[in-house]
Every structure is written in C-alpha cells, then in structure tokens.
Design brief:
The chain is an alpha+beta fold and 362 residues long. 26% of the residues lie in helices and 28% in strands. The protein folds into 3 domains: 78 residues, Roll (Structural Genomics Hypothetical 15.5 Kd Protein In mrcA-pckA Intergenic Region, Chain A), CATH 3.10.290.10; 87 residues, Pseudouridine synthase; 187 residues, Pseudouridine synthase. The protein is globular and about 70 Å long.
Length: 362
C-alpha cells in the first residue's frame, strides 16, 4: 500500500493524499485508485480522473487512466458529495436527518442517537453522511468509531474523541462485557409460536456465494457451521400481524437480531433481505423495486433501533438510553392500536429489569 500522507473529510468533500512506494512503481493510475477503492467502478474512476479529481502532482494535466505512476510521486484525490448517497422511497427523495442527537458528551466520549441512513464511518460509496465525519468537521480532529450500527439501524452509538478512550471501550465490546438492547417491529408469519419471551441460539455465517455475501445464514446451535450467537427476545405488544418487542444480543454477529427474529417467525418490517428476500434486496439496491416490493416492506428501512447500552466507563457502569425514534413511533400509531407512550414506559421497565437480572446471573 502507498504511504498515506493526508486524509480529511467534511460533509461535502473528501481529500486523500498518497506517496507511491517502490513496489507500486509503474502501476496504472486507475489500477492504483481501484486498489484503494475496491467498490468504485472503473467507469467512475475514469470519470474522476477526467474531471481532475484525481491528479499526479507536478505533472501537467490532463492525466489518463493508463498514466503510469512512479516511486515518490504524490497522488491526490478530492471527491465531492453527489446524489449517490441520496435515499428514495416509492420514487420520492427522502429527507434525511444529518445532524445526530447528542445524548452525552465529555472530553473523551461522544454518545449519540444515530439517525437512520447515517453510516458509522466512511465505507464503500458512503463517504459523507457519517457519524465520524460529522464530528470531525465539527471539531477539526479525528473521531474514532468504538463500535458500529448498520446504516439503516438507528440509536445509541459511541464515538471516541481520542485513541485512548476508543481503544479502552472497544475492548469492552470485544470481551462481550457490554449489555445492549434493541427495539424492533416485526410482522409475524406461520413460524411464530406466540411466545412472549424466547432465546435464539442459531449459529450465524455469511453466505458462501460472493454475490450473496451480504446474506447471513442461520445454522442449528449444535452445527459445526457458523459462529456462536445468542439473542434474548421480549415481546411487548401484539396487534394483528404486528409484533413489537426488545432484543438483547449477547454476541455481536452481523445481522444477528434480524436473522434470529426471522428464524422465530418475526421478520422485521422494512427488512429488504430477511422479510423481502435476496432478489428483492437486489431490486432495492439497483433502484428498480416495484410498487409490490414497497408494499411488502411497509416502511423505508428495517425497523430496528439501538435503544440502550450499558458499558463500564470512568470506572463505573453507565447506561446510555434513547427513546423510540419518531419514524417508528409514527408507523406504530398509523398501523396499529398500540399506545406508544405506554410502550415507551414498558421499554424503560424491561430494560432496567434485564440489566439488573444480568448482574444477578454473573
């Protein structure tokens, strides 16, 4: 890899500067960029080179995709926010919340309620509407992600204002010493056994087909496939086909709650993969989902919200909690007879009880 000389973000511009190392001498410019941005197509890279968003210092433009780069040369990439981060629902542009709610903040830690469609940090094509980018622009310094939430998942997210804090709290997650609670809305199917509490222990593993690697497969608890995973579920309310509840993941596998809920007959509304299926997920990804696809989803994002998190910070256990987000409350009020104010109270009680019970079981 080339030597990274500079990397800076703000909500509209991303700038990165590299110095070419000897082992990269003679590589094509487009190949060099592709090796650092694997999600970018060659057409996109070609377009950015033509627009002089990718330049080789001390060389007269125009540069070309097949221009060779040489040892010690400086490559600068500046890219700007455009429409590829927009989100649509039924053909209409969604108005995104781009300013996260700050729950708690001090000189070391920022705790926010992450809005849906905001990524934790820049990744792939998502470079601007990111939690770390927002605060790096605000404080003009590097902000460190401690853990992450899926792009569509909202709720409690911890960010470190310095490496020491980030490393210390990341270890708490890695050692499974953090208690987490998620709020969800599901649509039951024939697999649901009408249980009010249950524990899912299916092992989880990503699909072995590279085209479907985003799809997580469940396996029996005694299987040799997959990785150990455990989630406790508490059902709070049921109304018609809809079920509202809390999930307490003991492990932190990818898509864990969504897959475990589906296994027990409770796929989340808005979940394009586990309610809709992989072909439907691809249609949404490619921007060609039908009206029937939208109707089946019922909501523009999967209904999962990080409601509370307990972690040891400043030598004591601290609970960071947020409310049911407005989009999920509004959906419940529009589609069910569930009282959202009473639902909020139930959430608080069940979270406190679960955290207390966890202490007794240790």
């Amino acid at each position: 890899m080339a030597i990274l000389l500079e990397k800076s973000f703000n909500p509209t511009q991303y700038r990165i500067v590299w110095e070419i190392e000897p082992h990269e001498d003679g590589i094509r410019l487009d190949q060099f960029i592709k090796s650092n941005f694997g999600n970018w197509s060659r057409e996109l890279i070609k377009k950015k080179i033509k627009a002089s968003e990718i330049v080789i210092s001390d060389r007269m433009p125009p540069h070309r995709p097949n221009s060779k780069v040489h040892t010690k040369e400086i490559i600068t990439l500046v890219t700007y926010k455009d429409k590829h981060e927009d989100e649509y629902w039924n053909g209409e542009l969604l108005k995104l919340q781009t300013t996260p709610e700050i729950l708690i903040e001090d000189e070391n830690l920022i705790v926010i309620s992450k809005p849906t469609f905001m990524t934790t940090h820049p990744t792939g094509k998502r470079l601007f509407n990111c939690a770390t980018v927002f605060f790096e622009d605000k404080y003009k310094k590097t902000i460190h992600s401690i853990h992450r939430l899926d792009r569509e998942t909202s709720g409690v997210l911890l960010l470190g204002r310095n490496p020491s804090c980030a490393n210390k709290l990341t270890k708490e997650f890695e050692k499974s010493r953090v208690l987490k609670c998620y709020f969800f809305i599901a649509r039951k199917n024939d697999e649901y056994k009408d249980e009010m509490t249950f524990e899912a222990n299916q092992r989880l593993e990503s699909h072995d087909n590279s085209l479907k690697r985003v799809l997580i497969e469940p396996y029996p608890e005694n299987s040799t496939k997959g990785k150990h995973a455990k989630t406790s579920f508490i059902i709070l309310e049921k109304d018609g086909p809809y079920v509202v509840g809390l999930a307490f993941p003991k492990t932190g596998r990818q898509h864990q709650i969504r897959v475990h809920a589906q296994v027990y007959g409770l796929p989340l509304i808005g979940d394009k993969i586990y309610l809709g299926g992989y072909p439907m997920f691809q249609r949404f990804k490619d921007g060609c989902a039908s009206k029937e696809d939208h109707d089946k989803m019922e909501h523009y994002r999967h209904a999962l919200h990080s409601m509370a998190l307990r972690i040891k910070y400043n030598n004591k256990l601290q609970v960071f909690r947020t409310k049911i987000p407005a989009d999920l409350s509004q959906w419940i009020e529009s589609n069910t007879k569930i009282d959202t104010k009473e639902l909020e109270k139930k959430c608080v009680i069940e979270i406190e009880n679960y955290f207390k019970a966890s202490d007794k079981n240790e």
